[in-house]
Design brief:
Blueprint (H helix, E strand, L loop, with lengths): L44 E4 L5 H12 L3 H6 L7 H17 L5 E12 L7 E15 L5 H4 L6 H9 L7 H20 L5 E9 L8 H16 L3 E5 L4 H6 L3 E8 L8 E8 L2
Parallel strand pairs: 4-5
Antiparallel strand pairs: 1-2, 2-3, 3-4, 5-7, 6-7
The protein binds 2-acetamido-2-deoxy-beta-D-glucopyranose (2 copies).
Length: about 270
């Protein structure tokens, strides 16, 4: 059961298997949040991620998910160890990026921005502000073969570099166990080929520009061309977008919390043309 390496896609969050825990602490020069900059949004476009995007990708993921209740629940010391967390996550995304396989896609939307940091003095650069990870999953493939994706993926990888200074391991492990079961039931055991949206995140400074929808349309068009459904497990924050894109809400997944005022819920959703 211990499988800490060679997961397919980077990102979305939540998986921290105890058996993968090990550690080192490297302070990072990067702060999670970057300056707000002007951009001309008509120049926003979608493309496959390249290695030089990985810093931006890490920042998008972290800044998008860190405000969530789930982060507060599983990473109670996150604010204190933010740099460390970013650094680990950057290492994880780098490792995962090298293992993107056939049938997996990591797309980004970048916008031209003026970078006002001291070094660059207002130079124009393209900055990644939204990411999406997709995986075509064929039925009856051993999960070892296609690896964990999305929520399941990054934390296997994250845990490899993390000494979990910010983590409540009891909570994270319990969440991991429940979510894995739901993932297996709805996604892994689905008997047809599917286009699975493993992760979707927009940097909070760039919400409201339709970047999430742009990413979804990319995958939906691809799935329609292949005559397969799109599937995903939505967070409460993501649900309204998928609902507006006419995904069907098929099952409400409750993840019980241990000592938290509320349980977490996710919605298993599917889109078929
Ligand atoms: C799923 O269940 C929770 C808790 O009962 C509820 O608050 C939430 O609105 C439900 N989600 C959807 C998409 O129906
Ligand atoms: C971690 O979670 C456990 C189980 O919910 C809880 O009893 C404990 O108080 C938490 N520890 C910290 C440091 O928050």
């Amino acid at each position: 059961m211990a499988r800490c390496t060679s997961v397919t896609l980077v990102f979305a969050l939540f998986f921290l298997p105890l058996w993968c825990i090990s550690f080192k602490f490297v302070p990072s020069p990067h702060s999670g949040r970057q300056q707000r900059v002007q951009a001309s949004l008509k120049d926003a476009y979608i493309r496959p991620a390249v290695e030089t995007d990985l810093d931006d990708i890490t920042t998008v993921i972290l800044d998008a998910f860190a405000p969530s209740q789930l982060y507060k629940y599983a990473f109670p010391q996150f604010d204190q160890f933010r740099q460390h967390h970013w650094n680990c996550m950057r290492e994880a995304t780098g490792r995962e990026f090298k293992h993107i396989r056939k049938g997996s896609f990591l797309n980004v939307i970048s916008v031209p921005t003026r970078d006002h940091s001291a070094e660059s003095q207002g130079q124009l650069r393209h900055r990644v502000v939204a990411i999406a990870g997709w995986k075509i999953i064929k039925p009856h493939t051993a999960s070892d073969e296609h690896g964990d994706v999305g929520l399941l993926s990054l934390y296997h990888s994250y845990a490899e570099c993390s000494d979990n200074l910010d983590t409540n391991i009891t909570r994270a492990t319990d969440f991991n166990r429940q979510f894995s079961l739901a993932y297996k039931h709805f996604v892994d055991d689905y008997p047809h080929e599917q286009m699975y949206l493993a992760a979707l995140a927009t940097h909070p400074d760039w919400d409201g520009h339709g970047f999430g929808a742009m990413h979804c349309h990319w995958g939906m068009e691809k799935a329609i061309a292949m005559n397969i459904p799109v599937s995903l497990i939505a967070t409460p924050a993501g649900w309204p977008l998928y609902d507006s894109l006419e995904f069907d809400s098929l099952a409400n997944i409750t993840i019980k919390t241990l000592d938290w005022p509320e349980d977490f819920w996710y919605e298993y959703m599917r889109y078929e043309d």
